[in-house]
Amino acid sequence: MTIKEIKSKLSILTVLHRYGLRTNTNAMLACPFHDDQKASMKIYRSTNTVYCFAGSCDIKNLDTIDFIVPSE
Asked: pTM to 2 decimals?
């Protein structure tokens, strides 16, 4: 299976749930990549990605593979 096939078949919500992360009713959650006191990470189901809006976070836009193995 190629990376492209994995990305098309693996939902970002499945990845989040695997790590015990749950979104609120606005498709937001506390970002696991920094000390987040409130939900700053938005889930985009249409693109199967997440985006962290916190200015202090080095992680911004991630897809299913990037979430599992973020680049340094």
From this structure: 0.84
Residue among 53, 43, 46, 47 at smallest CA distance from 13: 43
Instruction: Please give the structure tokens belonging to residue 44.
Output: 């985009």
Token pair for 64: 């299913």
Per-residue DSSP letter, 37: S
The predicted structure's pLDDT at residue 68: 87
Tokens of 2: 């190629």
Task: Report the side by side order of strands in the sheet with 41-44.
Answer: 28-29, 41-44, 49-52, 61-63
pLDDT < 70 stretches in the chain? 70-72
